[in-house]
Specification:
Layout: H1 12-15, E1 18-22, H2 27-37, E2 42-47, H3 50-64, E3 68-72, H4 80-87, E4 93-98, H5 114-142, E5 145-150, H6 163-183, E6 188-194, H7 201-207, H8 218-228, E7 234-236, H9 243-267
Parallel strand pairs: 1-2, 1-4, 2-3, 4-5, 5-6, 6-7
């Protein structure tokens, strides 16, 4: 299918015919899968639990008529990106969405088991980096495609109680902005989202019934992300601030990437 499907936000000719959504069994990831399918793009949805994966996949097949495959995969595992590559062998993947890596609870750094943080880094840094390298190379060679990396507001600066998570999400956001600058001339769009608090099952488990202001619906964030994919290297949701503050912070990061891009061209003129 080419062009944008009725009701869809994406151009399937550019971002299809297949998309990979890592962390797509519920919440934000499931909404990404739905909105991508609405544009007529086939899906590989990845998550650890097979049951919720199957439920989302069947719902999308019924509602949008696209082909949906699932992959039950622990994104902490060192061969996670290799298994993604194997699962998409022979498929033309035009869009990769990394939505994995939510933190289920906060503890100070020295009180957190080191293995927990190693898994968090594997999931948010190593697997994301490897997958971007694999899918990004094919997109660059074809001259089209898109990469969406969901970061977090915690990635904008250090935050006690989630030190490793904050550091990992900073990596994700900076990786997205760097790839945007490197790939924008090759027809590949990249965006990193400094995501806000969203009303997802993961957040509700953390809050345990506590009500907080400023929590957004995941479908709203997903649709805004897809609309912005071809326009900016990142978007910052400034928690508790008016929308114009989000736009201001986003523009500051955008302008910084452009400024350092010019400097990089001097140092890396042969690349």
């Amino acid at each position: 299918m080419s062009g944008t499907a009725i009701g869809g936000l994406l151009d399937a000719a550019k971002y299809g015919p297949w998309a990979v959504v890592a962390g797509g069994s519920d919440g934000t990831g499931a909404w990404f899968a739905r909105e991508i399918a609405a544009s007529g793009i086939n899906l590989l949805i990845i998550a650890r639990r097979q049951g919720p994966l199957d439920a989302v996949a069947q719902e999308i097949r019924n509602d949008y008529g696209v082909e949906v495959r699932t992959l039950s995969l622990d994104l902490n595992s060192p061969d996670a990106s290799q298994k993604m590559a194997e699962a998409t062998k022979g498929l033309e993947v035009g869009l990769y969405v990394s939505n994995a890596g939510s933190e289920d609870g906060g503890h100070f750094f020295l009180d957190t088991p080191i293995e927990n943080m190693r898994n968090l880094i594997a999931r948010n840094v190593l697997t994301v980096m490897d997958a971007c390298h694999h899918f990004g190379r094919a997109m660059r060679d074809r001259g089209r495609g898109g990469i969406i990396l969901m970061s977090s507001g915690t990635g904008l600066g250090g935050q006690p109680g989630v030190a490793a998570y904050s550091a990992a999400k900073g990596f994700v956001l900076n990786l997205a902005e760097s790839l945007w600058a490197e790939l924008r001339g090759a027809g590949v769009d990249v965006i990193g989202i400094a995501a806000p608090l969203m009303d997802t099952p993961s957040l509700q488990r953390i809050l345990g019934g506590l009500q907080l202001p400023g929590i957004l619906a995941p479908e709203e964030v997903v649709r805004d992300t897809l609309r912005r994919l071809s326009h900016t290297p990142s978007y910052v949701y400034a928690y508790g601030e008016p929308p114009e503050e989000s736009e201001r912070q986003t523009k500051l990061r955008h302008d910084r990437v452009l400024a350092v891009e010019k400097l990089s061209q001097i140092f890396f003129a042969d690349h």
